[in-house]
């Protein structure tokens, strides 16, 4: 199976979907001539031309709304935000227009649109460029929220998102673009709303998504040296959340740690804990713990930044705690 | 001509009944009446084709009716009934009818201007010769969504007709108190876009201006900004009195002397196209239609509880 970067896996998904369906177009800042700020759209302008690969001015609200308007007529826009931090300017269109159009029109007006771009912290980009918004968007009925952690999932889920027919918030990992993995060629779709067990284990469940999956896997390796077998569940989709998959794992391990990069208050982890206590209360041998970003705006200083992010040691410590090992 | 007059009269009588039904508690939420502005919606729709697209703000009962949506479907929506044009889930501010390409009623000031621009983008994408028409109030022109949209529409030449209904007040704030430049049409200069200032109390002037804009748009995608000067005879919404803190009774009375419905009726009368008898017949016909709509709305079923969770997502 070919090994691709996360970036090229996304590129492959876009290219294949644009070849398959001429209603699909890509719009955003620097997606065409510049080949994408993170080169996800490399070569697409050359293959599909400027009608379908549309460079925009720096007007997130405007082009997100233009995409949503085009979707109302049945086109399938893929709107690229250079980062999700900038999409805050477009949140009125994502939340007030895209998420509600089908409902408030009594089922008449479709909204087949994908909003995508990188999210999460990179390195020393400071407060305005280091945010994870999965929980923000997952709060909104009408939206689906996807955050893939591997190249194969990135490809398979982006293809599913484009075909879904609903507004999808697709949050890529800024630090994942260069990561590599095996990616099936051609038609490969990953269903929305299905978590994936990335590593099997019987002692503790680590629930994670996006960049935190790699963190969880490293923590699992470390725990294995002490004889602890952690199971790593990759949510892949935040909304709809695959509660059965999480509950199945917790019923097996009886312990659970939820890892995410975003803030703790009302985060994705809070939702997971809510579901776990309801679905698997009698199976739990310890309270569920959460590892998240610190409850602060991201500092620039690299030592402070490190303190603000979840890391392997924090995940290991949480796992040991739920196992009463310390 | 009779059709134009009839449509304006239907909106007037419909809105009067809507106000009355609101007072009776049959209509809830926010309800923004269109009385005084009828010539704008009716004149515009007279210049459009059935395959054109229309989008409006939350003061859109008039546009919906002028576009041909039935008084029954609109009134039932105001009543929140399942027979309403949005199955009772949209209400006064979210009227939709895909068949007539009426793509809403939108509740955030300026928020639908990018959407209408996107519809125009889609027309061009598909190589069509339709136009996308976007109604909004003058208070929206200070909003970023307005400027971002007009810039891209002009840059990409997409066939959008922006119809700014300048009724002078954004809720209770006069345009002069909100805008450094209150010549709305002049704002098109920033985007090298054609514009016109139109008398919104004259249905024919509106129709002709939209026709000219439509020809430009269909020819090569050129968008247009129309500033249509009009006036709302009612308060901003049902909770706002007709006059009070922000405008005087005199001002309202003065504007009412330019009532577009009265003026147009007189013009047709003087041209020998509509005598008193014909007018009375029209009044009776419209009264029946509105009465029927109210009865229909009243007698229609409430949405089934299952509607609560229907249409959040479209099935794959």
- Major β-sheet of chain B, in short? 6 strands, parallel
**Count of beta strands of chain B:** 8
Output the CATH topology of the largest domain in chain A.
Rossmann fold
Q: Tell me, briefly, the overall form of chain A.
A: globular
Order of helices and strands of chain A: EHEHEHEHHEHEHEEEEHEEHEHEHH
Overall mean confidence score, pLDDT of chain B = 96
**Class from secondary-structure proportions of chain A:** alpha/beta
Mean pLDDT of chain A: 97
Order of helices and strands of chain B: HHEHHEHEHEEEHEHEHHH
Q: Terminal Cα separation of chain A, in Å?
A: 42 Å
How many structural domains are formed by the residues of chain B? Answer: 1
Percentage of β-strand residues of chain A: 15-25%
- CATH homologous superfamily (4th level) name of the largest domain in chain A: Thiamin diphosphate (ThDP)-binding fold, Pyr/PP domains
Multimerization state: heterodimer
Outline the low-pLDDT stretches of chain B.
none
């Amino acid at each position: 199976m070919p090994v691709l970067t996360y970036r090229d896996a996304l590129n492959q998904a876009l290219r294949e979907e644009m070849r398959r369906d001429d209603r699909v177009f890509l719009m955003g800042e620097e997606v065409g001539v510049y080949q994408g700020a993170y080169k996800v759209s490399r070569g697409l302008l050359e293959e599909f031309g400027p009608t379908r690969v549309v460079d925009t001015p720096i007007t997130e609200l405007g082009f997100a709304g233009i995409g949503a308007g085009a979707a109302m007529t049945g086109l399938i826009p893929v709107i690229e935000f250079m980062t999700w931090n900038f999409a805050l300017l477009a949140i009125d269109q994502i939340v007030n227009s895209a998420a509600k159009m089908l409902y408030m029109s009594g089922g008449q007006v479709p909204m087949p649109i994908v909003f995508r771009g990188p999210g999460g912290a990179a390195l020393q980009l400071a407060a305005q460029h280091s945010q994870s918004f999965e929980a923000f968007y997952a709060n909104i009925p009408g939206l689906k929220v996807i955050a893939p952690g591997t190249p194969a999932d990135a490809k398979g889920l982006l293809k599913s998102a484009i075909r879904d027919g609903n507004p999808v918030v697709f949050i890529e990992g800024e630090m994942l673009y260069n990561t590599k993995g095996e990616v099936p060629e051609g038609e490969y779709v990953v269903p929305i709303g299905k978590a994936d067990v990335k590593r099997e284990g019987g002692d503790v469940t680590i629930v994670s998504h996006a960049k935190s999956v790699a963190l969880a896997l490293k923590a699992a390796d470390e725990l294995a040296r002490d004889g602890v077998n952690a199971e790593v569940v990759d949510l892949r989709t935040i909304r709809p959340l695959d509660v059965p998959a999480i509950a199945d794992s917790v019923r097996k391990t009886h312990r659970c740690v939820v890892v995410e990069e975003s803030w703790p208050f009302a985060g994705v982890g809070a939702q997971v804990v809510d579901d776990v206590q309801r679905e698997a209360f009698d199976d739990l041998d310890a309270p569920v713990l959460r590892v998240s970003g610190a409850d602060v705006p991201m500092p620039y200083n690299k030592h402070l930044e490190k303190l603000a992010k979840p890391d392997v040691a924090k995940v290991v410590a949480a796992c040991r705690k739920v196992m009463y090992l310390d | 001509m009779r059709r134009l007059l009839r449509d304006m009269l239907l909106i007037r009588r419909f809105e009067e009944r809507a106000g009355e039904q609101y007072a009776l508690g049959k209509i809830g939420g926010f309800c923004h009446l269109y009385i005084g502005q009828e010539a704008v919606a009716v004149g515009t729709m007279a210049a459009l084709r059935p395959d054109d697209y229309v989008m409006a703000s939350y003061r859109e009962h008039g546009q919906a009716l002028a576009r041909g949506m039935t008084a029954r479907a609109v009134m039932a929506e105001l009543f929140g009934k399942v027979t309403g044009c949005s199955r009772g889930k949209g209400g006064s501010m979210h009227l939709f009818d895909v068949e007539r390409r009426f793509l809403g009623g939108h509740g955030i000031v300026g928020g639908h201007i990018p959407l209408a621009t996107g519809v125009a983008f889609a027309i061009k994408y598909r190589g069509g010769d339709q136009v996308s028409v976007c109604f909004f109030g003058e208070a929206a022109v200070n909003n970023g969504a307005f400027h971002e949209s007009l810039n891209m529409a002009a840059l990409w030449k997409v066939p959008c007709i922006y119809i700014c209904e300048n009724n002078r007040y954004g809720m209770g704030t006069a345009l002069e108190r909100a805008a450094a430049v209150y010549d709305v049409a002049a704002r098109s200069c920033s985007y090298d876009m054609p514009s016109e200032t139109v008398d919104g109390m004259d249905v024919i002037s509106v129709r002709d201006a939209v026709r000219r804009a439509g020809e430009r748009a269909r020819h090569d995608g050129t968008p247009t900004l129309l500033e249509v000067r009009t006036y709302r005879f009612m308060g901003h919404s049902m909770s706002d009195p007709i006059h009070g803190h922000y405008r005087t009774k005199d001002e309202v009375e003065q504007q009412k002397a330019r009532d577009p419905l009265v003026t147009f009726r007189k013009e047709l009368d003087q041209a020998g196209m509509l005598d008193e008898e014909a007018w009375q017949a029209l009044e009776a016909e419209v009264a029946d239609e509105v009465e029927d709509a109210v009865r229909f709305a009243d007698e229609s079923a409430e949405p089934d509880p299952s509607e609560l969770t229907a249409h959040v997502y479209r099935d794959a």
